[in-house]
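WARN  no MSA supplied for this record, continuing single-sequence
INFO  ligand: glycyl-adenosine-5'-phosphate
INFO  echoing inputs
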Amino acid sequence: MTDTPSRDPNDVAAAVPDLDTIVSLSKRRGFVFPSSEIYGGINAVWDYGPLGVELKNNVKRAWWRAMVQERDDIVGLDAGILMHPQVWITSGHVGSFSDPLVECGTCRRRYRLDELPGAESLTATDLTDPTVIERFKLTCPNDGGPLSAPRRFNLMFQTYMGPVQDEASVVYFRPETAQGSYVNFKNVQQSSRKKIPFGIAQIGKSFRNEISPGNFVFRMREFEQMEMQYFVRPDQAAAIFEEWLPRRWDWYVRYGVTPARLRFREHAPDELAHYAKKAIDVEYRFPFGWKELEGIHNRGDFDLSRHAEATGENLEYFDPATEEHFTPFIIETAGGPDRAAFTFLIDSYREEEVRGERRVSLALHPDLAPYKVAVLPLLKKRPEIVELCHRILADLKRDMMAVYDDTAAIGKLYRRQDEIGTPWCVTVDVDSLEDMAVTVRDRDSMTQERIPVEGVKRAILDKLDAARG
Ligand code: GAP
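INFO  complex generated
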């Protein structure tokens, strides 16, 4: 698959025509910056600015809420990024976690074979075929030079642990959070007294030395994952797998993604990851085509059996109801807050004309919006108005992210908040000093209502609660 837009005339349009709209808004308003920019940047690493960190934290909170807080059968874990190196040998990542790499004989540029122009129709079997370059007449997209036969390129970053740098001290930066949940299966199950089926949820950094990162934060070399491993009876795995598909789809829709821009795509048998029995991706229609947003995998007993074999630990589960011992199957939901936040940004982007002026807004779900509310003075020269603003702001800040701004006229202040997705603005005007009421403006409808100062926080909290459904 290449990162080019679909040419299917029946395909749904992306929410924004090109990525630049989002990249420039992100930089200008402080969502995402290139890492180490004053040094010229480092490829495939991005930094989240003041608004981006709020958005991404809110995405993680929303996921945790749906996956842990609202459920009785899933508990959390925060395992280390560095693990015993044998974990990655046992899990198959040292041997198999690789992409097909080709190199140009003249300019020496390297590419991921399946992302070359002309490689769209290649099957997973083609990707390992040494004659694939000749068969499909593929050449270097940079200078048309000859390409090498594909070789497997392992995606794991490695480093050394301790003061001696030799073979024995090699450790890997985890490429997925999942293994931390597998090696802790017994610890978590016994300490939390969970009965199967139950799950372990984790959010945390993962690292992959991607051959061709790109499309902004879509594919990075350092990123975060939100993964949940659900341990089930083998005979229930197929049915439980099916149950997780609509749940994960609904989560994206619940937080505002347009359903027409989502689809499921099942992996072909020769495309499955080394651990997977079955895999279905939730894909989103990005401006650069349909791409994976999250993967739902039936990993069978691959991981637990291999870890049990390698360590001699008994990782079976004893089912007191049936008095059976068995190795649980694992149904995994594997997404990432970077890709999810990116999707919410793209899908919420709106551009319209209001009274002859261009209005840009982010129709973010209020739970995801960096600021829930902005407090704005109509006249910043009146100290009583500013003082009342700060009193309201201080009260709001006890419960939510709120911001004050007085650096422009009110129309411009509204536009600025619209552009970063703030759902409500509270405006204090001259009348407020008399009637002790303020105007609350809604981002999406732009309607305004008058609310007593004392009731502002309650009104915003109620609106937040209503948005949760
Ligand atoms: N444990 C299974 C696993 O890691 P995956 O499909 O390779 O599955 C899961 O990754 C999710 O992690 C992806 O759907 C995506 O959201 C996120 N992800 C993976 N690689 C990424 C990258 N290079 N940059 C940003 N996010 C990435």
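Residues 98-154 form one domain.
INFO  checksum written, moving to next record
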